[in-house]
Design goal:
single chain; alpha/beta; Dihydrofolate Reductase, subunit A; nine-stranded mixed sheet; binds NADP nicotinamide-adenine-dinucleotide phosphate
Length: about 160
Amino acid sequence: MKAIVCVDKNWGIGKNNDLLFSIPDDMKFFRETTKGKVVVMGSNTLKSFPNGNPLKNRVNVVLSTKLSREDCVIVRNFEELKNAIKGYDDVFLIGGERVYADLIDYCDTALVTKVDADGEATAFFPILDNRVGWTISSQSEEMISNGYKIKFTKYLNSNVKTL
Ligand SMILES: NC(=O)c1ccc[n+]([C@@H]2O[C@H](COP(=O)([O-])OP(=O)(O)OC[C@H]3O[C@@H](n4cnc5c(N)ncnc54)[C@H](OP(=O)(O)O)[C@@H]3O)[C@@H](O)[C@H]2O)c1
């Protein structure tokens, strides 16, 4: 499993159940990276999408103890998640705060878009620079998108846990 996330300079990811920034180049990167793949999210992240709808052209797996719907694969716990993603090569953990916190160490890779701004977040991603096993393997040049300085960073985990 790989995590994909956009963070501000404090590793903030959201506030008011929404994203911090609108960054077209990051959206494009997200769309192209996850297209045709499995995306795993918590129920708040699903709610944050336009009209609360799942993402098109992807298998949407949603962790929830309460939701019941036909347009996503709903899983009630990590055991059900494990069964739901079995056999898929490319599985992306797409948020939010709680799901990232609980599942980050089960990921081998994290694709982190870093935004050089303070989004005054109330939801955060684990700080990978301080986390055992995680190191940066590559980093893009800085670019400007919608007025924000951004950088695409890839972290690898040398200590991956098994679900
Ligand atoms: N910057 C980014 O790249 C990015 C990406 C994604 C999200 N976000 C942001 O992150 C924020 C949302 O984070 P969040 O922590 O509030 O929500 P979340 O992680 O998306 O969802 C949490 C919910 O998922 C369900 N859940 C979580 N773990 C579960 C488990 N083990 N078993 C069963 N259900 C489980 C529970 O819902 P039930 O009550 O339904 O059981 C829980 O309340 C928003 O601001 C969003 O915009 C940012």
